[in-house]
Design goal:
Membrane-bound Lytic Murein Transglycosylase D, Chain A, two-stranded antiparallel sheet, rod-shaped
């Protein structure tokens, strides 16, 4: 004969200790000091859906932000994308000859096109070894 053992204890609200219902006179009437703890009511399904949506959105935001941070560290402060690099022979640099009174700023204003003037001047400085130029010097244009 198979015997099944059933746990007949409940946790009382004020003591937090197990209280046996079997063999106890208190199983008939629960006194003021011995309130049974009831299970918490289950939340509606809409609450769980809303929680999942919030957690999913937060997780997606963190993944995208993490990807952008990793990309910034990997790519760094480059002037172009990796797909902009084309294999092949290097192109000849375009140069202009500095005239008396020319500055990198005036050369940038004349040759920059739609590029921001500050960015163009920075590029001129890096290509020509510094901010100072002399009349007759060949200025490499970006």
């Amino acid at each position: 004969m198979n015997a099944h053992i059933i746990d007949t204890r409940i946790i009382t609200a004020n003591t937090g200790r197990p209280h046996s219902l079997v063999g106890s006179p208190s199983h008939r009437s629960v006194g003021a000091n011995r309130r049974p703890v009831h299970a918490v009511a289950r939340q509606p399904e809409s609450v769980y859906r809303r929680r999942r949506l919030v957690v999913g959105t937060l997780a997606a935001f963190l993944v995208v932000t993490g990807g952008l941070v990793v990309n910034e560290f990997v790519v760094g402060d480059s002037d172009g994308t990796a797909s902009a690099a084309v294999a092949g022979p290097p192109t000849a640099r375009v140069t202009v000859t500095a005239q008396p009174g020319d500055t990198l700023w005036s050369i940038a204003q004349e040759h920059r096109g739609p590029v921001n003037a500050n960015d163009y001047v920075d590029r001129l400085i890096s290509l020509n070894g510094g901010p100072s130029i002399q009349a007759g010097q060949a200025i490499v244009l970006p």
